[in-house]
Design brief:
Blueprint lengths: L3 E10 L5 H11 L3 E6 L4 E7 L1 H14 L5 E10 L7 E3 L20 H9 L40 H8 L20 E5 L2 E3 L2 H13 L4 E4 L4 E6 L3 H11 L8 E3 L2 H7 L4 H8 L5 E5 L14 E5 L4 H9 L4 E6 L11 H8 L5 E5 L11 E5 L2 E6 L8 E3 L7 E3 L9 E4 L2 E4 L9 H17 L6 E5 L5 H8 L4 E4 L1 H12 L6 E11 L5 E9 L4 E6 L3 E2 L4 H5 L1 H13 L9 H7 L4 H9 L6 E2 L2 H11 L11 H7 L21 H12 L4 H27 L3 E5 L6 H13 L3 E4 L10 H13 L2
Parallel strand pairs: 2-5, 8-14, 10-12, 11-15, 18-21, 21-22, 23-28, 28-29
Antiparallel strand pairs: 1-3, 1-4, 2-3, 6-7, 6-14, 8-9, 9-13, 10-13, 11-12, 15-16, 17-20, 18-19, 19-20, 23-24, 24-25, 26-27
Helix pairs in contact: 1-2, 5-9, 13-23, 15-17, 15-18, 18-19, 20-21, 21-22
Bound molecules: zinc ion (2 copies) and fe (iii) ion (FE).
One zinc ion (ZN) binds next to helix 3.
Length: 751
């Protein structure tokens, strides 16, 4: 038999996911000799044997690779014939500053759940893992990915674990966090002055207290969570007080997807997403009200399935099928990862704090995803997804996108990949800023990143912009909405000019006003503002975001002047009860502290206030979310509008106020309003296509988190021959801005 040798290079997400053991198994089955090893860029296989078998090797790798692995390319080249006796896993090689891959955290696999019931040394072991599952990014301190570089470093493997770790035929071969009851980290429960370490006792006590109306703080993969029975209004209420969270919806964890079907509508794609190894929180249409306190006034519910072994064990004991599963933080601070801080924060207000002594190094919140028009869309991209790169079509080496402010992430560029940070939160919070800076530092080290340029938002007061200035790196400032559109272009590898529709909350414009209802023509370098919603005053600036009634008053005063109160609607009576409304009207008249805005997000806020649905907001997205919950998809009516530049809003608002005076149904008014926004998008896109011959439309900005607006706009455009694009790999909200900034900066400096 003629033998040949081949060198096979496989790139993609192929490390820390059980790739080499899989290669080993297949090679042995095919009688191939040689070795497989990790470099910090990819996996290399040296294969010697029958050429037909070698071909089968690559074929089988493509099909039989571990579930969390992503193969991007397999390159095969002939090599000098080498004589080896066996196939083995060679030691890792750290060679270049090329792209390194770090696996996101992977939810526990079925084999491990099985082992937990059968393997003597891992019976009920709550931190069981293998090469196919377990913590990754959250425990990595440095690369290459070896146990000594993770927070498992303090735990010496017992003889049995070491044997498995060294046995290339074993599912735990080179599983860095491998552990068992003998040698691994364990759980600890602080409960009624007691410290409990027996896992059986911890689980039964936790289940008991949750079923009986208690609240527990439970350490998760990337941070603490707070849990309680979702069907019991008392702990839910108490949790709101504890978290200082008035109206934001709580996420839930459900026993199984079958069970979730009872309470929420679930299509195949949502089912798949719920069960994926990333285990995100999936936003679903609620079928049956679970509890008014969970998602007050809303019709969507965020649910995830158990992802850690402990969660599965807990559900074996729990009577309730659904628990609240919300991040363990107070108000807007980053989620707690430190055990001592968790005790300080949560022991006083909850019934138990349950931790384990494996440290979380990198904080990762639960990700939040929804499905619309058959595509996955991120609200928050964190656990299970970070730090997977976004592949782009340009070289972005050395560039940092600093992000925005409210939902901040940063992005760093490595060759043709953009690596976005996990969700960090609202940068206005000092703790969040600290987390942001620390993460950027860590990403720099992990990915061997050498910064040469930083791109930030035009807004000088965003802390991300100030941070960018403070780095001393060459700086490029990028308009917020251009960055939104560019984030989509980068994802979909679009280069040529597109029609960009950015319907958003706020973003500073070139003219110093607050933009957010923007129709642009742009490529990755420049943009032209073709049209926008007309400017209205935003009395009090940021205060008008928290209190939409101010915003609505600004709108009335802008459109109707002294006759602002000519409508006989409850909102006007409400305004007249506000002690300071006359002062506010004067301020609007004199243009004192009244920035002008074209924001679409603020228009939704104002409408929610005019309808008295949300005159004062508990959180920044509350008003539009409450509106969305009241839609009637079967209603086709809209309000009148004419396409002018800028877009006139007065006809629509006048009609809308007339509907309120006529005491029309709220849902009817809200649906007409939404339909008008969709028709505006469509009509303006048509006009731009006619004038400029551009057929591609890109949709981005926070307003497109509204599924109705996104779906209807996309469908309407697609049905009329447009090509539409929107965010699928990064959030459509400000957490996607960093990618857009990086893309624009990379293209501007390209020679
Ligand atoms: Zn496993
Ligand atoms: Zn062990
Ligand atoms: Fe934005």
């Amino acid at each position: 038999m003629t033998k040949a040798s081949s060198l096979i290079t496989i790139s993609g997400l192929v490390q820390g996911v059980g790739f080499r053991p899989a290669v080993y198994r297949i090679a042995c089955e095919l009688g191939i000799k040689g070795w497989v090893k990790n470099t910090n860029e990819n996996v290399i296989i040296c294969a010697t044997g029958d050429p037909a078998q070698i071909e089968k090797l690559t074929q089988r790798i493509r099909i039989e690779h571990p579930p969390a692995a992503v193969i991007e390319s397999i390159r095969e080249e002939p090599a000098a014939l080498t004589e080896v006796q066996d196939f083995h896993i060679a030691s890792s090689q750290s060679t270049s500053s090329g792209i390194t891959r770090i696996s996101p955290d992977i939810s526990v696999c079925g084999d491990c759940l099985n082992d937990q019931k059968n393997q003597q040394h891992r019976l009920n072991y709550p931190l069981i893992n293998c090469t196919n599952c377990g913590p990754r990014f959250s425990i990595i301190k440095s690369l290459p990915y070896d146990r000594s570089q993770t927070t498992m470093t303090g735990f010496d493997m017992c003889t049995q674990c070491r044997q498995e770790y060294r046995d290339s035929g074993n599912r735990r071969f080179h599983a860095q966090p491998v552990a068992c009851n003998q040698c691994g980290p364990g759980y600890l429960m602080h409960y009624q002055e007691e410290k409990i370490t027996s896992i059986q006792e911890i689980i039964s006590k936790t289940a008991g207290l949750v079923d009986n109306g208690g609240i527990a703080a439970l350490k998760g993969t990337g941070g603490y969570n707070l849990i309680c029975n979702a069907f019991d209004p008392h702990p839910v209420e108490k949790l709101r007080t504890l978290k200082n969270r008035d109206h934001k919806p709580f996420a839930l964890m459900g026993r199984s997807s079958e069970l979730i079907k009872k309470y929420a509508c679930l299509n195949d794609q949502e089912m798949q997403l719920l069960n994926s190894w990333q285990r995100p929180i999936v936003l679903l249409e609620e079928k049956q009200k679970i509890g008014e306190g969970i998602n007050p006034g809303l019709d969507k519910i965020g649910i995830l399935l158990p992802c850690m072994p402990f969660h599965f064990q807990l559900f074996e004991y729990l009577k309730t099928d659904l628990i609240v599963f919300t991040s363990g933080n107070l108000s807007d601070e980053p989620v707690t990862i430190s055990d001592s801080q968790a005790l300080k924060l949560f022991l006083p207000g909850t019934d138990a704090v349950i931790s384990y002594n494996r440290e979380i190094h990198n904080r990762v919140d639960d990700s939040v995803v929804f499905v619309s028009n058959g595509k996955n869309r991120f609200i928050r991209r964190s656990r299970g997804y970070a730090p997977s790169p976004v592949k782009v079509d340009f070289n972005c080496e050395g560039i940092i996108g600093a992000g925005a402010e409210l939902a901040s992430t940063f992005a760093i560029g490595k060759e043709r990949e953009a690596i976005l940070s996990q969700h960090t939160g609202d940068l206005k919070n000092p703790e969040t800023l600290e987390f942001y800076e620390e993460s950027l530092n860590r990403f720099g080290k992990l990915f061997r990143f050498r910064p040469k340029l930083i791109a930030c938002d035009l807004h000088p007061d965003y802390l991300s912009s100030r941070f960018a200035e403070s780095t001393g790196l060459p700086l490029i400032k990028i308009q917020h909405h251009h960055a939104h559109i560019a984030s989509v272009m980068a994802e979909h590898r679009l280069e040529k000019e597109v029609i960009g529709i950015s319907l958003d909350g706020t973003g500073l414009g070139d003219d110093g006003h607050i933009w957010g209802g923007e129709f642009l023509i742009c490529d990755l370098k420049n943009y032209e503002r073709i049209n926008h919603y007309e400017y209205r005053p935003l009395p009090g600036g940021d205060k008008a975001i928290k209190e939409p009634w101010r915003n609505a008053l600004g709108l009335l005063s802008h459109f109707f002047g002294a006759q602002w109160d000519r409508f006989d609607i409850p909102f006007i009576h409400f305004i007249k009860r506000q002690p300071n409304y006359e002062l506010l009207l004067q301020a609007i008249g004199k243009k004192i502290n009244c920035p002008l805005t074209s924001s679409a997000g603020r228009l939704f806020d104002a409408v929610a206030a005019l309808l008295m649905i949300c005159p004062v907001a508990g959180h920044h997205a509350q008003a539009p979310m409450l509106l969305e919950a009241k839609l009637y998809p079967e209603i086709k009516e809209e309000y009148s509008f004419a396409i002018k530049s800028p877009v006139e809003l007065k006809p629509m608002i006048t009609d809308l106020l007339g509907d309120i005076e006529k005491k029309k149904d709220l849902g009817f008014i809200i649906t007409r309003f939404h339909n008008t926004i969709v028709s505006l998008n469509f009509a303006i896109a048509c006009r731009i296509r006619k004038e400029r011959g551009i057929n591609r439309v890109v949709l981005s900005g926070g307003v497109f988190q509204n599924r109705y607006i996104l779906d209807k706009t996309e469908n309407r455009l697609n049905e009329n021959g447009f090509e539409t694009y929107s965010n699928q790999q990064v959030p459509v909200n400000d957490a996607g801005i960093s990618l857009g900034q990086l893309a624009i900066a990379a293209c501007r400096i390209k020679k």
